[in-house]
Amino acid sequence: MAVDPTGESLKDYLAEDPGGPVVMLNLLRFKEGGQADYARYSRALAETVLPRYGSEVIYYGKGSTALVAEDGQAWDAVLLVRYPSREAFSQMVADPDFQAVTHFRTQALTEAVLQATVPIVPAS
């Protein structure tokens, strides 16, 4: 199962840049005991890395009752992170401080969705 972005997916992400901020949807499925590793990763990012790139956690919550989902589609946690731009996200991923802790995320998860979102602006 996929956990980490690939070089190719990052290239596509940057090539499709509509400009402006991006909110990254994270759907997370933890390994047994993986929450502790993910918490370590999250703390390191929140304390040093995210602020450096003007980014912020908008929401982090534990998955609960799935009202509409096929078997296996429920997630352990949902995370929304706002970045000022796609480039800021790309720079963060290359940051040595990020690289020093990203292995905690990788070892914490069995599966993840990491999807950029763009705002839908209603027509005037």
Automatic annotation (TrEMBL):
Pfam families xrefs: DUF1330 (PF07045)
Name of the protein described by the UniProt record: DUF1330 domain-containing protein
Organism: Actinomadura craniellae
Residue ranges of domain DUF1330 in the record: 35-111
